[in-house]
Amino acid sequence: MPGGDKPQYVVMATDRKLPQFTGLPSEPGDLNVDEFILECKRSFKVWGTPKDQQGFLVGRACVGEAKAQVQLLNDANKDDVDIVFVHLREAYADKAPFSALIQAFYARQQLPGESIRQYSLALQTVMRRASDKDVDNKQLPNPDLTLRDKFIAGLRDQALRKDLLKLMREKNGSKFKDVREEALHLSGEYDEEIRSEPTMRVAMQTAERHSSPDSSSLCAQVAQLTAELAAIKGHMSQQGAASQQGTPFRSSYRPGGLPGDKWTPDGRLICRRCGGPGYMALACFSDYNQAESEAESVEGPRFILSKGVARLEKEIEFLQEEARENRQAIRLFLRDRSDENYHPQLARIVGGSEEEYNAAREMEARER
Question: Among the residues of 280-343, which ranges form H helices?
Answer without folding.
Answer: 291-299, 301-335
